[in-house]
Amino acid sequence: MLLGGVPLFYGATVWLTLGLVIGVPSGYVGSSEVSEVVELLEEGSDKRDLVKRRVDGPAVYGLRIINYKIQHPYTIRYDDKLHFIGRNLGKIKQSWLSQNGRCHSFDSNLEVKLLKQNKSEVFFRRFWIPKSISTTEDFTVCISPGRNEAWKSFMKLRKARKSGGLYLPLYFQIPVVIACLALSALFSGLSVGLMSLSVSGLELIMQYDPIQAVYAQNILPLRKKGNFLQCTLLIGNTFVNNAATVLISNMISEFGIKSKMLDFAISAILPAFVIVVIGEIVPVTVCCRWGLWIGSYTRFITIFFMVLTAPVSYPMSMLLDCIIGKEGPESYDKAMLENLVEMNVEPQHGLSRTTADLVVRALNITKLNASSVMTPIEKVFMLPEEAVVDRDLVKRIHELGHTRIPIYRNHNRNMVTAIINVKDLVPIDPKCGLRMSTVVQVWQRSRHFRFVLEEFPIAQLLKEMKRGQPLALVARFNQRLKDYEVTGVIALEDIIEEITGEILDEKDVKHRHPRPANNTFRQTATYL
């Protein structure tokens, strides 16, 4: 850093001499004034007194700026400290700035204040530039007593405005900070509260929750513009957070903290702490619970900022729609639905355990095929066509409790020709000795049955069985025989049990809880 051609090192005490720095200072007898002094001495005693006053008066040799921070060596800021270097400085009564290079009269508005009053400091004194000086023009320094030629005292320096100070009046800046923090809380809360509500979820609330249907109806038009809404909330939140940080740091800097590290720590930590607590944690926690209600009552504020930020947020939302696509209806896979059902099993206000199991089984039915539900053919009670309908056969069928019996031909259990219903045997007299082939010919409907492959879906088979075919034979292709073979039987009851759980029919009740038969059952059994 140079001042008048002489280097000034920051933080070091460098004395600026008269001849090299500032020309001839007022009140100082230098080599350039030797001839003038000699002439005065020769003129008489009156002139000698004038020379004595000049020699004994204050003389400024140089100037040093304390805590110099700016690059230009001739620029001084508000509150900068100045070292006056010279002799007899204790005799300086007043010092001020001059804009015209003349020091005819003292100007209190441009006064340079004495930093420390000490009469012993005759060679080194401190002054400071007060804030009341608002000039930004070139100026020189005047002292009193001294000569009127200010330009001979110091070279011209430029007074620069200090960069500090509040950006706004304090009574206005504090409400602006509060408003920014309130908007930050609103934007953060709505980003979580609104975006966590899906379009399908809002439509579901409108249909099944009459209390919150009004809130959902107010939010749904905004929520359908998901990317536009998200861009608006993020842009607004970023803007108000930055504004709040700058304004809070600006107010903190006005406290005049001398330690740079402490000033930096407070300016960095305090705004971040305020924004995180007030603008993030609290609103997000609140809106996670009451996001529907808050979003409904603040929808007009949201619409206002969507319009305000539309020049930026709307093109960004259109770009996001092109890149990642518009937000579609929310859907769940089976695993997620099962977890949702299990999570909502509660003894009082949620689903009961029975209902939850029923829903889970209904969801899992699409995973099943015929082979996983059928009864293996080895465990199926079947009759050949040559079987005679007599009392012993009727009694056996009654003991087994079957309602439908497959009929096969030529001792080949894979060659099923009909499925007889037990009620078709009621009109037949056991004493007649009719064969099963004859019964099949009498009841032609017994020939109406179907085959399904082992891989056939149970859900599709259930639809077909509801049309009037409650029993089906399961088959598979035998590579060795190059033909299909029957592997099992599947009934409508088997499919329903996969959904509702085990169904206890008459046979199951008889085996598990035997009880006396009623009169009607005795009469039927006696007849058979």
From TrEMBL:
The answer to whether the entry has keyword Transport is: yes
Q: What's a single GO MF annotation on this record?
A: transmembrane transporter activity
Q: Which GO terms describe its cellular component?
A: plasma membrane
UniProt name for this protein: CNNM transmembrane domain-containing protein
According to its UniProt record, where is this protein located?
Membrane
Q: Which UniProt keywords apply?
A: Ion transport, Membrane, Transmembrane, Transmembrane helix, Transport
GO terms under biological process: determination of adult lifespan; magnesium ion homeostasis; monoatomic ion transport; positive regulation of gonad development
Bilayer disposition of the protein: Multi-pass membrane protein
Q: InterPro entries, per this entry?
A: ACDP, CBS_dom_sf, CNNM, Ion_transp-like_CBS
Q: Where are the transmembrane segments?
A: 6-24, 165-187, 264-284, 290-310
Homology family: Belongs to the ACDP family.
Top-rank taxon? Eukaryota
Q: Does the keyword Transmembrane helix apply?
A: yes
Ranges for domain CNNM transmembrane: 166-358
Q: What is its main location?
A: membrane
